Amino acid sequence: MTTRGLAVEAVTPAASGHLALKKDDVVKILSLHSSGYYMCEGGRAGNKGWVKKGSLTLAKSFIPTANYAAGSDDELSLTSGIRVFGFTTEEEWWFGCNQSGKQGYFPGTFVDSPEPSPTIPKSPPLPSPIPTASATVGNINGNKKPPPPLPKKNAPPIPPAASNRTKPTTSHFENSNPMQESRNMAKGKGNVAVSMPSAPAPASSSPPPSSGSTRNFKGTFPLQFLLWANNMALASAAWMVIFGIFTTLWSDPKHYGCEIGGVAIHKNYLAPLNETATAVICNPNEDDLPDLNGDFGIGLISIFAGIGIYAFEGFGVDDRMWGCYYPSDSFSYTNKVSIRGLVYILLSFPLFAKFPSALSASFLFFTGVVCLYGVHRGEAGDNGRAARAKRKAQAAARGGGGNKGGNKPQGRGGEAGSWSPIKYYRKLVDENKLAIYVWVFLYFFSNALTFFYTLSIWVGSVKTMEQGLLDGTLDTLCDDDTCALNKVIVTKGGISSWGPYAKACGMCLNFNCSLIVYPVVKILLRRLNNIGVSFNNNRTANPTVFAKFFAKPVTRLIPLSKNIDFHKLIAKVMGAFAAGHTIFHFFNYRSASETTLTVFKKWGWGGTAFFTGSLICFSMFFIFTAASDTVRRAHYEIFFSAHHWFVVYFACLLMHGPIYWKWAFVPLSLYIIERVMQERRGDRPYYVNKVEWIDPVMAIQFRPVYKQDFVFKEGQYLYLNCPYINKNEWHPFTISSASSDLATGPRIALETGEEVREVPRPAGMSKSDKWHKYCPVGQDYTKLKPSQLLDKHETGYNDYVSVHIKVHGLDSKVAKSWTRKLKEYFELMNPKRTFPFYLTHRDDRGDIIVGRQRGPDGQQILRVDGPHSAPAEHYANYGTVMLIGAGIGLTPCASILTSMLRYKWKKNYQPEILHFYWMVRQSDIDSFQWLIHLLTSLSHGLKSSREQKQIGPQYYCEINIYITGVSKDPVPVPALRTPENRFQGETTAPSFLASSLYGAMLNPSASSKSQVEVQNGQGSRSAKNRIQDIWIWNGRPDWDKIFKQNKRQRQHESIGVCFCGAPVIGKDLLKNCNKHSSKEEDVVFDLMKENF
Ligand SMILES: Cc1cc2nc3c(=O)[nH]c(=O)nc-3n(C[C@H](O)[C@H](O)[C@H](O)COP(=O)(O)OP(=O)(O)OC[C@H]3O[C@@H](n4cnc5c(N)ncnc54)[C@H](O)[C@@H]3O)c2cc1C
């Protein structure tokens, strides 16, 4: 295989025999010379020539596992099995080229893992003389030498300067090959000038890459805090402009002059002009402009600095995005000091001088601090922005829109030209989107209603106030609060027309700031999720209007699974209203500062409104800037910690908004109850029973000391906390065991935790002799002496809940991620580091019991908060379910399968038909040995239950395993790491053992393209890729065909599709659910999707 290289910069040929390349040219790499030059073919002219090693990014090569049709001009089409090359990657997309050199993007999900890097052949002796170097080359002393003479025919391509060197000191010589050097010396080519080929030229002759084009991004950390700093800088800049405008405006407050819109107020209030004036007098000639703490100059600085920072952070030169451009060879990185951070901090100081600009100055100051911190800890990178920006620009230039997934999901009734409201309505119903649209509409409608209703009330008040001033009807001759306010209105002017807008925004904030809490109150979600569950069984069994209407009414009418999306939507709307509220108040304050302050006081705020308002803005600044997906994915802790500013936010809001407490009482109380319950749930005692490690997945089994503490449904998730690592850090994981595993777990050896099976009574033993012996499942009891068997008291039941955790950050030297720290904690408790690792304790009588509650530090090993609702838990509402899992997203599928096959079918629960689709790369099969064991045991259990008539014929489970990235050559099948389950002594013989399934998976024999044909064909029962009801396929599933087949063979009207895994697959499934759902054919595919 010949690999490819991508020019990272334009390459000018330093000598003849060198290739000229433009940036992003692709070349074939034919060989590598010891001096660090590649012999390449390609470039613009398609010639052969030398290119310096550092000028090329080497490609990784991939074999596509499925065909992919390019969705836009800048994408590459893939053909299954035909190799493509990838240079750079971001978000599951590779930028690369195909074999003919066409460049473009392709989806990483359609290809195998990269092939091992090929060994590039060493450059052979040159086949023909290479033209003389045209460049003047220097020796190690920097002296100029004349161009070297022509090489001898077939002479190896020795770098020109090599002949002169005595010490390999220059960077060029560092690359030279000592073997080659000694051969040259032996041939008399040592210290004397010899004839040598012109190619390749010494490094000194080709210009070093300019620092501007370097892409050296390997830092101590990837961008994390600096991504946050970028968001902070953009937000600070925007507010610097806004507050800068107010700093200038406030330097020139509006003059009241005892007039409203040019008309003098009532004569009663104008005493010097009129003897009938009342006690309160407005004097239009008095120059009493208030000092609003504005300053024209500072305002201008703020505005221009804001624009500058926004431009710098938000844009870039040459697809670079300066805001996130941190090469690791820059001055900042090498010296661990952020120039940008220092500039921001210095720039903030003058802005602190005035109130409006001081607010944005504090934003800028903290941005600078975060910049300094990020650079100090050694973050480097550009977060893939350059590539993304380039791709977007290319897509925009070609009008492609950058549709990654190729075809967009097409719902029924969506054909161009045939749109009608009824069709559209039905499409929404079919796609289960109607509830979402209705809720979003209701939400915006409520906001609009609140806004305009409040606005109309306040506009009315301002008008009444103005009318009072003009009529002279404002009562100022009394002592109550209203009169006090009226006196200020008469002398200083009324609330301006901006005021009502500020109030309308404020009222919408009351509404949104209370609503935002509901979608994250898990106790509420769980309760809503469960309403009407019992009616649901009617839905399929008895499809009457009543049954249909009452089947899960809440989940069908409220899109509960979109809770976080709704939370985010409300946050955005809140941000907009908060900005509006601030801006309108600032305008109003300029026109009527003293009256505004008096109104604030009247409402009981004292002078705190500005202070609490500022703190609210401050909290929002931290929360919003850290809540972006980019920051959350890069470093969850930033998102998590910054989000906790919500405590300050709500505390200040309660003081700031006079009636906010009425709005907030219910949601905040619910939230507080939720947190208290979480703490209390977290304090419940749990035993950790067993930890299993198969790189990179750690399986943990634990159990509550009191069973009622943890009652869950399959598909749900929980939060784990390990106080040894951090008392406040909770991580979500889906439960991978069945709820009944907690009630009737397997019998295990107490000493080791190993699962045991009862040994049958030996033939011929008298019935009067006692016999209760057990043997570990990994051993063959026929080969053990009776004394080696376990007695009943040496065994016990292991009831458990399990989670399977993918451990992150295994490559880094020190443990940074929580999952890795947890693994190391278990290793600490298990110095032998042998897995599975069973934890045990002794009870009061000194007997060994499996499970340990406290770690060496005396704290609980694990705290558990849960269970919590998740989309997959609704699988039980369907007669037929398609369970689809890939990667660690399999955990809910494992839980559901176990529950149905092992327990619930025996009790006649639905779903009756289960299709399980598991996608796994050949190279990852090893880390899923736990699932191979589980599937083997479930299959055997199912067979045995059928034979014993415990499970009826209506129940059916089909398992399809898709192996991707399969190597062409057969793969050796090693022994399984965990011993086989043995089934001796049972009446039902197993159809297969885990090792045979493992072997079949490692070497899949049938292509997934033929799945439907094979499964529907004559010989399907004896197909060689079938093991009991498990089918093993080589390649990716063809969803279109599978959905069609399931539709054709369906026995139930609605089919639940549970998926957990990569969003790209989720999109594909959504497309197919929409495409194959059909009211006419009475079938609905309901997608229940979760992304980790
Ligand atoms: C509902 C749900 C169910 C999940 N189920 C599983 C499962 O069964 N098995 C499994 O291996 N993983 C599961 N995950 C993902 C798992 O929570 C994260 O991989 C884990 O928290 C990573 O933490 P870390 O510090 O080791 O990794 P890091 O390297 O710090 O982060 C890796 C990724 O995990 C995210 N992450 C980090 N901390 C958290 C957190 N406290 N909460 C949410 N996301 C976080 C980060 O944003 C990042 O994208 C699930 C996630 C969710 C939301």
Walk me through this protein's architecture.
- The protein is an alpha+beta fold.
- Helix content is 37%, strand content 15%.
- The strands form 10 sheets. Strands 28, 29, 30, 31, 32, 33, 34 and 35 form an 8-stranded mixed beta sheet that branches. A 5-stranded antiparallel beta sheet has the order 4-3-2-1-5, with no helix packed on it. Strands 6-7-8-9 form a 4-stranded antiparallel beta sheet.
- A hairpin with a 2-residue loop joins strand 14 (686-694) and strand 15.
- The relative contact order is 0.06.
- The structure holds flavin-adenine dinucleotide.
Number of strands: 35
Are any ligands bound, and if so which?
A: flavin-adenine dinucleotide
Q: How many helical elements? A: 30
Backbone CA Rg: 36 Å
Strand content: 15-25%
For the sheet with most strands, the description reads: 8 strands, mixed
Task: For the structure shown, list the relevant keywords.
1092 residues, eight-stranded mixed β-sheet, five-stranded antiparallel β-sheet, 35 strands, 37% helix
Brief summary:
The chain has 1092 residues and is of the alpha+beta class. α29 (1039-1048) runs parallel beside α30.
Please describe the topology of this protein:
Layout: E1 4-7, E2 26-33, E3 37-42, E4 47-52, E5 56-58, E6 60-62, E7 84-90, E8 93-97, E9 103-107, E10 137-138, E11 144-145, H1 171-174, H2 178-186, H3 225-250, E12 259-260, E13 263-264, H4 296-314, H5 331-335, H6 339-351, H7 355-376, H8 385-398, H9 421-430, H10 434-471, H11 481-492, H12 499-515, H13 522-530, H14 533-541, H15 545-550, H16 553-557, H17 563-591, H18 593-602, H19 608-626, H20 629-634, H21 636-643, H22 646-656, H23 660-682, E14 686-694, E15 697-704, E16 717-721, E17 730-734, E18 747-749, E19 756-758, E20 773-776, E21 790-791, E22 795-797, E23 801-806, H24 818-829, E24 837-838, E25 840-842, E26 848-850, E27 863-868, E28 880-886, H25 891-903, E29 913-921, H26 929-947, E30 956-964, H27 994-1002, E31 1006-1007, H28 1011-1016, E32 1026-1027, E33 1030-1034, H29 1039-1048, E34 1054-1060, H30 1063-1076, E35 1084-1090
Parallel strand pairs: 28-29, 28-34, 29-30, 30-33, 31-33, 34-35
Antiparallel strand pairs: 1-2, 1-5, 2-3, 3-4, 6-7, 7-8, 8-9, 10-11, 12-13, 14-15, 14-24, 15-23, 16-17, 16-27, 18-22, 19-20, 20-21, 25-26, 32-33
Helix pairs in contact: 3-4, 3-7, 3-17, 3-19, 6-7, 10-12, 11-18, 12-17, 12-23, 17-18, 17-19, 19-21, 19-22, 25-26, 29-30
The structure holds flavin-adenine dinucleotide.
Membrane topology: Multi-pass membrane protein
GO biological process, one term: superoxide anion generation
InterPro entries: Cyt_b245_heavy_chain, FAD-bd_8, FAD-bd_FR_type, Fe3_Rdtase_TM_dom, Fe_red_NAD-bd_6, FNR_nucleotide-bd, RBOH/FRE, SH3-like_dom_sf
